[in-house]
Write a structure and sequence with these properties.
mainly beta; SH3 type barrels; 6-stranded mixed beta sheet; single chain; 6-stranded antiparallel beta sheet
C-alpha cells in the first residue's frame, strides 16, 4: 500500500472557472508546479485529481484540475489537503535532502561519537530548517540544519553527526 504525504491545501477558489487557490510549504513551488496528479482523501481512500495547469500567483499555487470547471464543482474540495505518493517525493529529493519523518527519532552524535540526544522535531524559521534535539539533560535545543553544523546523516544507521559548537546544545 502506498504511503501518501501532504504537499498543500486547497484554500479557496480562484476566479469562476474552477481553479483552486492552494497553499504550500515554503520553497516548494518548483516541485508543486511539476506535478501532474495529486490525491485528496475521501474517507479512507485517496482519490486522484489530474492537474491540467498550474501557476504561482501571490505566493499561492493556482491549480486547474481536469473535470472541475466551476466554483460549484470545486467547493466540495475547499479545505482539502492535497497528497502525493511518497515515492514521487523521494524521486525529487536532492542528495542532501530528507523527509522530516525520516529525521525525527534519529540519534544525534558529536564528531567523537558521543551521543548528545535525539531529534524530536523539525521546523523552519524562514531562513533554514531547524532540528529540535532533546539532549541527554532532557532540554530541547534548536540546531540549524546546515552543512557547517550537521556534518553527516545516515538514515540507515539512525544517526546524525553534528559539529557541536560551544553553546549549541545546552
Amino acid at each position: 500500500m502506498s504511503k501518501f504525504i501532504s504537499v498543500g491545501k486547497i484554500l479557496n477558489f480562484h476566479g469562476i472557472q474552477g481553479e483552486a487557490k492552494v497553499g504550500f510549504s515554503r520553497n516548494q513551488q518548483e516541485f508543486l508546479l511539476g506535478l501532474t496528479e495529486v490525491f485528496v482523501k475521501s474517507g479512507s481512500d485517496y482519490v486522484p485529481l489530474k492537474i491540467s495547469k498550474s501557476r504561482i500567483h501571490k505566493n499561492f499555487a493556482i491549480i486547474k484540475f481536469e473535470g472541475i470547471n466551476s466554483i460549484d464543482e470545486l467547493l466540495p474540495y475547499k479545505g482539502a489537503l492535497l497528497f502525493v505518493e511518497e515515492l514521487t517525493i523521494r524521486e525529487n529529493l536532492e542528495e542532501d535532502e530528507f523527509l522530516i519523518d525520516e529525521l525525527v527519532g534519529l540519534s544525534v552524535y558529536d564528531a567523537e561519537d558521543k551521543k548528545l540526544g535525539f531529534v524530536v522535531g523539525v521546523s523552519n524559521n524562514g531562513a533554514t530548517d531547524l532540528l529540535s534535539v532533546k539532549t541527554n539533560s532532557k532540554k530541547v535545543s534548536l540546531v540549524p540544519f546546515v552543512k557547517a553544523i550537521v556534518t553527516g546523516v545516515s538514515i540507515k544507521d539512525k544517526k546524525i553527526v553534528i559539529n557541536n559548537l560551544e553553546g549549541l546544545l545546552e
